[in-house]
Amino acid sequence: GKEEVQTVRVAEVTRSIFYAPQYVALAKGFFKEEGLKVDLKTTWGGDKTMTALLSNGADVALVGSETSIYVYARGSSDPVINFAQLTQTDGTFLVSREKIDNFTWDQLKGKTFLGQRKGGMPQMAGEFVLKKHGIDPKSDLKLIQNVDFANVPSAFASGTGDFVQLFEPTASIFEKEGKGYIVASFGAESGHVPYTTFMAKQSFMKKNKEAVDKFTRAIYKAQKWVDSHSAKETAETIKPFFKDTDPKLIETVISRYKEQGSFATDPILDEKEWKNLQNIMGEAGELPKEVSHDILVNTEIAKKAIK
Amino acid sequence: MGFLTLNDIHHTYFTKTSATPALRNINIDIKEGEFVSFLGPSGCGKTTLLSIIAGLIQPARGCAMLDGKNTGKTDSGIGYMLQQDYLFPWKTIEENILIGPKINGTLNHAIKTETLALLDKMELRNVLTSYPKQLSGGMRQRVALVRTLATNPKLLLLDEPFSALDYQTKLKLENLVSSTFKTFNKTAILVTHDIGEAIAMSNRVLLFSQRPGKIHKIFDVPENLRLLSPFEARHHPAYNELFQVIWKELESLEPEE
Amino acid sequence: MGFLTLNDIHHTYFTKTSATPALRNINIDIKEGEFVSFLGPSGCGKTTLLSIIAGLIQPARGCAMLDGKNTGKTDSGIGYMLQQDYLFPWKTIEENILIGPKINGTLNHAIKTETLALLDKMELRNVLTSYPKQLSGGMRQRVALVRTLATNPKLLLLDEPFSALDYQTKLKLENLVSSTFKTFNKTAILVTHDIGEAIAMSNRVLLFSQRPGKIHKIFDVPENLRLLSPFEARHHPAYNELFQVIWKELESLEPEE
Amino acid sequence: MNPKNETEQLHLQYIKRLNKGHKQIRFYQLLIFLAFFSIWELASRKNWIDPLLFSSPSKIWELLQTKLTDGSLAANLGITLTETVLGFILGTLLGTCLAALLWWSPLLSKILDPYLVVLNAMPKIALGPILIVALGPNLTSIVAMGAIISIIITTIVVFTSFREVDHNYLKVLQTFGATRFQCFKEAVLPASFPTIISTLKVNVGLSWVGVIVGEFLASSKGLGYMIIYGFQVFDFTLVLLSLLIIAVFATLMYQAVELLEKKLIKNG
Amino acid sequence: MNPKNETEQLHLQYIKRLNKGHKQIRFYQLLIFLAFFSIWELASRKNWIDPLLFSSPSKIWELLQTKLTDGSLAANLGITLTETVLGFILGTLLGTCLAALLWWSPLLSKILDPYLVVLNAMPKIALGPILIVALGPNLTSIVAMGAIISIIITTIVVFTSFREVDHNYLKVLQTFGATRFQCFKEAVLPASFPTIISTLKVNVGLSWVGVIVGEFLASSKGLGYMIIYGFQVFDFTLVLLSLLIIAVFATLMYQAVELLEKKLIKNG
Ligand SMILES: Nc1ncnc2c1ncn2[C@@H]1O[C@H](COP(=O)(O)OP(=O)(O)OP(=O)(O)O)[C@@H](O)[C@H]1O
Ligand SMILES: Nc1ncnc2c1ncn2[C@@H]1O[C@H](COP(=O)(O)OP(=O)(O)OP(=O)(O)O)[C@@H](O)[C@H]1O
Ligand SMILES: [Mg+2]
Ligand SMILES: [Mg+2]
């Protein structure tokens, strides 16, 4: 009958409420409407996700844009192109062990700060924000950066650190359980960056132009949907993807992200955001080389999609 | 009453599903200095009886008395020699032969000198610092004998000590053991499957019946054989005669396979 | 020229650092139907010589001819029986005794019937479907004998086949093997450490000297002993005489440990 | 008293004592079991341990029931079990074949010897990420991980057992004129059968490790996934439930292989 | 010709043949080695394999040299080696002590039996994250991981060996009136020494696995960290370098333990 349904294999870096629009697109059937069958797989961690993409284990990766720069800098002949942005701020929060009513960043000085693991976007954004507030991560506080992403919350819960940089929903869980208190948002402080983006290999995009277009359109639909619906409705929709999480909690987290504008409202990754990303990476000493926007980002598709 | 008295000994091995009667109604009197052999079909309970005499197993009924005392207590003055030498492979020969006195805490200079002298007597020189595996089977069994004698036991139990040796070595060792025991006037019990060995070495041969082991018959070895060394005894006409008698008797006990 | 001719056989084992001369200058002629025993100190090369005769080892020099043909080729018509039975524990008795014909591809109904009849003759009934470990040592050695005879070999090599058995079983098996071989008029070579066994079973006893093995002396067993069964022979006066002679000769060969 | 009767009585007494001993042991085992879980529950309720990190038996029990009713546990368990069984069969088979090859060609075995040593010493776990690069983040890599972890050790153990088969068995066959292949078929392989079976026991454990680590690295289902996911969403009840289920099923599988070993080796 | 001379000549011929064989084997080994690396290099240069993912020997070699000069490799290697050695000694010691305890009290061993079975079957790797919760993200957890992975199997193997010590050795001692402790000291422990030493060989491999996985989870130094970090920043050259170094040092350690085994068991 109609056009053949194309399957797109997507590898996401982690299963997180942070990526709510993606799950909405799946749950609401936006991909299906476009004639796509999306096969979603979680490959824990940016490294594994990018590896999956490079080794043709996935067609599209949802992962931080910094990985595409790493790959390019190592001399890839088939660069990975960012084509649709999903989140536009950092997604972590500063959680304090003690309750602090009037938090200022100065209070971090001399304390132990349990950060994210070295080389990843959360760590770089974290250090960037610290520096922005005049704190030298090397000398002004004791920085712990040796814990794998998944183990950071438990390390903090078992007594390591005065402050911790946490993703949702753990930050909210900690607050709910009285284990810690959210005192600041790295997302609000870092400004807009291409934090999580859909990307694919150049060769794939050439060969599957239409599919990429359809994919981006579906994402855009979902972004608009999330933007125009309440946190509660969004939480309801994506619940099947978070079977073991309290629906109340999902709602809290979504509203927190919505408030600080973490969910991108369109898939366009503009040049300003790209500059900011490289700036942050440069500050952290992890930028292997400057890459211009037009090499690794394709805004055409996104622009076409939102029309 | 003799030097060693076994009084109405019964023993049964139990497992969850079975009860194996091993010994029934064993009464034996052995005089000091006597050399007695136990002969009997496989599994008739000979090793069990030695273990009971050594006090390693508590019999279900009856008791074993050595020199008027129950053998069940430690330091009972009994030496036990097994089928294989069971020298400790990680100990030197010296450590091996002194393990007995060391364990029961009687090790002193005198005992050490005595034991080493005994080793010399067994024609084992210059092996003190060797390890057991550097020795031949016959040498090892001689070392085991020295180890057993080191605590100067009143009674020696020998459970098929020569069965793992080749024929020539075995004949030589029989002579050596026999003369050593005669010299020290030791009382000994020898378990063996070899009728010839039993006749050649002992004063009396006790024939056990099939399981549960009972004493089936007792043969006294003629005086003239006893005075000979085992090797000579084997070539005496009286030996052949007794051999035939015991062989027939044993044949009648073992069921055809 | 005899049935089996060993012609000036030499053999040396090599390792990187050593050369162990095992056999020197072996010349033997064995007639058809003869039963010959090899006697000699441990390590003098008896097993090596059997392996050479069986064609399992190529000698450094010389050759072994059976019935005019070199023994080095497969299907040489030689049966080899080892010290232990080496029955395959994962095969039933039936599979075990038929492995020879199966391997050399001659297995057919006639051979099967014949082999099973032989098993019957060895007083082994109803064990066809048993596994080796369900049998006693003596039974297993008899099964091994049947297995060796199943390919109807012209020459049998027996490497200490009775040494792992207890004394009584050994005596019985000696009789059985001797009578079987006489019935089928087999030629056989028996390696043994037991002087008595050598005398009781064979027509000739070859005494080997210390390594490197040479033929030290040959003893002919008196006619009157040969006619007796091994068990009877052991109790004949001529037996004792020859025993003493060989014993002395052997003593003179073995170095004091 | 007649001796027959006496023996029977003594036997009865013996069995009574035996049963009493068994009961005592069972009692202590149960005691430890109950004590462990009650103390855990109590400590969690009284906040002696952090209930967020260490959850509690009752919470785990509840979660188990929900997971059982919605069928998701069965699905995850099924995946992991399949992967493990596949990995373990593959590892054993390939390892044994490799061993046969080495036995067949002494030259090859000598040439490959240093490589086998290196591959054996190498912690195969570290290869996990490379495997994903090579095979992609899918079931294949996970099964491959479960197999790779046991192949080399199987090869080495089985090859050693092939070589250590009593040469006298081969001698028996050679006197009948057996070829190398006949020797392998009639003696070497069956004689090594017990060793091969007992490597199964080791391999089943190794495959679990491989599969769990594989699932840590790339998966969307399975017990390893449940652990990683639980950590991700900080749901330690889920993590501990998965761990307990792994413990139970790893034990069951191990016991099954042990049973198999006993059955097969009985006639061996 | 005189027989002595002939033997010598034959021996010389034999040795010549042997040496030729050895040389042949060495040649093939070298050939495989060179072929592997050249094909890798070539495939990478010609883009038959993705040079980004599989790097190339020349790049790895360059990186090795930089890392050697700036000393960072030595530091990371030192950390990992220390952790591994600690974990492995700890695992072996604790396992042996536990085995001694079980031997000492047959009742205890019977009671704990099912628990040991479960702990043995359990893939200890899955406990890694829990360990970090319990001990914190530091060296202690990594060493603990390296130890835990080998304790139970050591306990089981050594305990089995304790129990399987030939009862006749104990019988010998008992006839001299030995106490249980004397039996243990004089017979059970020394007789099991070879088993204990050979568990060392297994444990050294297990400890590597434990430490690498531990470093994957929580570390800021070490070879496992280098692998994880390399992935993070897509430096596969670093990952492969770390893997090669692990292969080399795991092999060296294994060989060292094997050497120790040979030395110690010679007199055993
Ligand atoms: N620990 C045990 N538990 C149960 N049954 C046993 C035990 N020890 C021996 N038996 C059984 O008791 C019987 C007598 O055994 P014992 O070892 O005393 O015989 P034996 O006369 O020494 O035999 P052999 O001549 O073969 O050495 C045998 O049937 C044996 O199976
Ligand atoms: N494969 C081999 N490699 C090197 N040397 C060997 C080999 N087989 C046997 N030898 C040596 O050759 C000599 C003769 O060995 P062989 O087994 O033939 O002696 P034997 O007379 O059968 O001894 P035994 O009476 O102990 O069975 C011995 O010194 C032995 O150490
Ligand atoms: Mg016995
Ligand atoms: Mg021999």
Automatic annotation (TrEMBL), chains B, C:
Residues 4-231 form the ABC transporter domain. Keywords: ATP-binding, Nucleotide-binding, Transport. One of its GO terms (molecular function) is ATP hydrolysis activity. InterPro entries: AAA+_ATPase (IPR003593), ABC_transporter-like_ATP-bd (IPR003439), ABC_transporter-like_CS (IPR017871), ABC_transporter_ATP-bind (IPR050166), P-loop_NTPase (IPR027417). This is ABC transporter ATP-binding protein. It comes from Mesobacillus zeae.
From TrEMBL, chains D, E:
Keywords: Cell membrane, Membrane, Transmembrane, Transmembrane helix, Transport. Pfam families: BPD_transp_1. GO terms for biological process: transmembrane transport. It is a multi-pass membrane protein. The keyword Transmembrane applies. It is found in: Cell membrane. Coiled coil: none annotated. The chain crosses the membrane at residues 25-43, 85-104, 116-136, 142-162, 206-230, 236-257. Residues 73-257 form the ABC transmembrane type-1 domain. Its main location: membrane. It comes from the Bacteria. Belongs to the binding-protein-dependent transport system permease family. This is ABC transporter permease.
